[in-house]
Design goal:
Helices cover 71% and strands 0% of the residues. The chain is mainly alpha-helical and 191 residues long. It starts with a helix and ends with a helix. 19% of the residues are buried.
């Protein structure tokens, strides 16, 4: 702030009108012009640097999250989790012994979404569409995770096919969002 005041004094002294104590003072407009051009160049350079850094951060966050989503979608598809949930739901609709519980235990640790957790505070650098889809994807997966890990209804076992059907719907929606984010990146991310 001190430098700003110093420059203000310099510009004021250069541009100030003549006074009784300094009667023939003439304003050197070339000096004032150089000072103003320098000031605007400094401000413009700072702005351009900040804008470039913001764009680079946005690209970096986007690429990292897409990579993690792609890996998760591929993992769920390779392990056929959706098919398993749907087949267990159908199996529970057939007559079974009383209190015969079916379980579904998926090892999905808390840190399955490390990249998302590290970049959650930077989601503001993405467009509103991008951020909404990223959050939606991870919320759906978190919902599924709560069902299939320790303490969840499917982990503990159930006799109700509706629990498996609900989990299959959640996973299907997450895979749909994830596929939209990863397969058609160019149009989706520019949305």
């Amino acid at each position: 702030m001190g430098e700003t005041l110093d420059w203000f004094v310099v510009v004021w002294n250069l541009a100030a009108p003549a006074t009784p104590t300094v009667p023939n003072k003439a304003t050197d407009w070339s000096t004032v012009g150089v000072a103003l051009i320098t000031a605007f160049a400094g401000i413009g350079g700072t702005y351009l640097t900040a804008a470039r850094q913001s764009k680079a951060e946005s690209r970096s966050v986007r690429a990292a999250i897409i990579a993690e989503v792609l890996a998760l979608v591929e993992l769920f598809q390779r392990r056929s989790y959706l098919k398993t949930l749907r087949s267990e739901a159908e199996a529970l609709k057939t007559p079974r012994p009383i209190n015969f519980k079916v379980t579904c235990k998926i090892n999905l640790p808390e840190h399955y979404n490390r990249i998302y957790q590290e970049n959650a505070k930077r989601l503001g650098s993405l467009s509103s569409i991008e951020a909404a889809q990223v959050v939606r994807f991870y919320q759906l997966i978190d919902s599924l995770r709560s069902d299939v890990t320790e303490g969840g209804v499917l982990f503990n076992g159930t006799v109700d096919a509706q629990h498996f059907e609900s989990a299959a719907e959640v996973l299907s929606a997450a895979l749909e969002v994830g596929n939209a984010m990863t397969l058609d990146r160019k149009s989706w991310w520019r949305g």
